[in-house]
UniProtKB/TrEMBL annotation:
Enzyme class label: transferase
Region (Disordered) location: 1-22
Alphabetized UniProt keyword annotations: ATP-binding, Cell membrane, Kinase, Membrane, Nucleotide-binding, Phosphoprotein, Transferase, Transmembrane, Transmembrane helix
Organism: Rhizobium straminoryzae
Name of the protein in its database record: histidine kinase
Length: 452
């Protein structure tokens, strides 16, 4: 396991965690607010009504099996009636609260259990359909509601094992299902129900977590772009304020000329004019900021990029060395990219957090590729972490590091942004005994010069 960050002295500044901001925390709320669209459930229930009706008609009219048509028709009509009321009462875009969805799925389960109870119980070949409401619940509802429905479904499955009604069969024959066979069918249904429910829950939760993490990634990228545009906004504001401030300055000069000998107001007017001139100088510098630095802000050499992402992390008691074996001659120069800046900065911050004394950043480039390697001298990645690294909400920190939180979301965001820029990331350890972590980021040079 990686070691928790080295304790900082009280004199050292405290950094803001890159993923600990309100916008990203808000992006995580989707995991707890899982809801089901009513229209989806209505269409599934109409499909169930059609399937049950066709099955009953086929068994009764084509196969001529003995079947309680009246009772089955009542149960199917009850499902259709509830579905019709839902369709008329609520708009198609209505989303069900978890308890409401649980109630509807419970009703579906009860209706299906009633049909099976009067048509042979577990001996009915359609008995495995009891799993369907449970699977839907685990795929779309919170876990506690789904577990309740699973227990209810197991209870219904157990109840229909004592059905006194025979399986629809030829009139002159009786299909006998021995208790041992019924027990085997019960075990098979419960096993399939539990396994399918667990599988549906895992798949849906991974999709929800990935969606939340990608939303957080977009928020971070948008925030970085917003910060990079502040200089332009400042220049625009300075330009708009220039005209009224010039008017104030002219009026102040006229007042100073008229009241120069006035003991009451002369000094105040002189102060007003000097401060207006000072404001004009400040606005003049803001107006020229974008024009003077526009090219520098748009184009960024590789060495400047490395300095920009490493500079904020040099004041925390950890030695941060930048090694450039390829030199700066012929280094790639590309467009400023907020995603690359954030991604590299997050990886360097992570290395500083876990380093004992030193973090090394090695920058290499040639005619074909650009590579940046970030290494620390802490305890590296655990073997089980390396296989899942970069997954959202997967901690790469030790459990003792409660201060850090360790959701793994920051690393996911960094990895996603860098991969979007065309980079390939390789996570490994420096030594066979997990001595120090290493992250290597490689771009094709042509891509880096276009994206950097």
């Amino acid at each position: 396991m990686r070691l928790p960050p080295i304790a900082r002295s009280p004199a050292e500044p405290e950094r803001d965690t890159r993923t600990d901001n309100p916008s990203i925390r808000h992006a995580q709320f989707g995991r707890a607010n899982r809801s089901m669209r009513l229209q989806t459930l209505v269409w599934l229930r109409w499909l169930a009504v059609a399937g049950q009706t066709l099955t009953v008609l086929f068994v009764a009219l084509v196969l001529h099996f003995s079947l309680p048509v009246g009772e089955t028709a009542i149960l199917i009509a009850a499902l259709a009636l509830v579905n019709l009321v839902l369709s008329l009462w609520y708009p198609p875009t209505h989303r069900l609260k978890p308890l409401a969805a649980l109630a509807l799925l419970g009703f579906d389960l009860l209706q299906m259990s009633g049909l099976l109870f009067i048509t042979g119980g577990l001996a009915n070949p359609f008995a495995p359909l009891l799993c369907v409401p449970v699977i839907i619940s685990f795929a779309s509802l919170p876990l506690r509601h789904s577990l309740f429905l699973l227990l209810f479904a197991i209870g219904c499955t157990t109840l229909i094992t004592i059905s006194p009604y025979p399986v629809p069969w030829h009139r002159d024959e009786i299909l006998i299902i021995y208790p041992v066979m019924q027990l085997g069918i019960w075990c098979a249904i419960v096993s399939m129900m539990s396994f399918a429910a667990f599988y549906a829950y895992r798949v849906s939760m991974e999709a929800v977590l990935l969606a939340d993490a990608l939303a957080a990634t977009e928020l971070v990228l948008e925030r970085e772009k917003h910060l990079s545009q502040l200089d332009g906004l400042a220049a625009a504001a300075a330009h708009e304020l220039g005209t009224p401030l010039a008017t104030i300055s002219v009026v102040a000069k006229e007042m100073e000329r008229e009241l120069a000998g006035d003991e009451r107001f002369g000094e105040d007017v002189a102060l007003l004019r000097s401060q207006s001139e000072r404001c004009r100088d400040i606005l003049r510098r803001l107006t020229s900021l974008s024009a003077e630095n526009e090219e520098h802000m748009r184009r960024l050499p590789l060495s400047s990029l490395i300095e920009e992402v490493t500079a904020p992390h040099r004041q925390f008691g950890i030695t941060l060395d930048v090694i450039e074996p390829s030199g700066r001659a012929g280094e790639p120069v590309g467009q400023r990219n907020a995603g690359i800046l954030y991604g590299l900065g997050n990886l360097i911050e992570n290395a500083v957090d876990f380093a004992r004394q030193k973090v090394t950043v090695t920058v290499e480039h040639d005619a074909d590729k650009v590579a940046i390697t970030i290494e620390d001298d802490g305890i590296g990645f655990a073997p089980d972490v390396l296989t899942h690294i970069g997954e959202p909400y997967m901690s790469t920190r030790s459990r003792e590091d409660e201060r850090a939180g360790g959701l793994g979301l920051g690393l996911f965001i960094a990895k996603t942004l860098l991969e979007r820029s065309g980079a390939t990331l390789i996570f490994s350890n420096r030594g066979p005994d997990h001595e120090g972590a290493r992250v290597r980021i490689v771009w094709p040079r042509a891509v880096m010069e276009m994206k950097a």
